[in-house]
Design a protein that fits this description.
By secondary structure, the chain is mainly alpha-helical. It has a single domain, classed as Leucine-rich Repeat Variant, CATH 1.25.10. It is built from eight helices and no strands. α3 packs parallel to α5 and α4 runs antiparallel to α5. The longest helix has 17 residues. This is HEAT repeat domain-containing protein. It comes from Euhalothece natronophila Z-M001. Keywords: Antenna complex, Phycobilisome.
Length: about 140
Amino acid sequence: MVKRLVTWGKRQNLAQIPQITSYVLDPDERIRASVALVLGKIITGQRLNLEVEEAIKALETLSQDSSSEVRKLAIKSLGRVFSPKIVPTLELALKDVDLEIIEIASEILQNYKRTLPITREEGEKTLPENIAIKEAAQ
């Protein structure tokens, strides 16, 4: 099964995401780790659409896995998609018991803070009008 997942990942075909995500709860840790890795490869550089959102949901589930290796791969894979939808999962990963996962999530969040535009709803403040200039113009 791992070989099949790797083959699907090499194809980077978004249409295969539903097949891949069906293994998220597989009892075999190696398969869950492969799912996290393959989903990361497929969603790298992709625009947000239904398939990518499905992959994000699967990676969010894997980020809470009992295996720290699976959680680490899921967080790394989430960092490959540029979407504010992953921020809550990354913030939750900052509370993980594994320091490496905390470091990875922190690094991804720092990169997002440097690159995501701030909208007015998110707290952008406009400067007050300069009354002196306004009065001088009249």
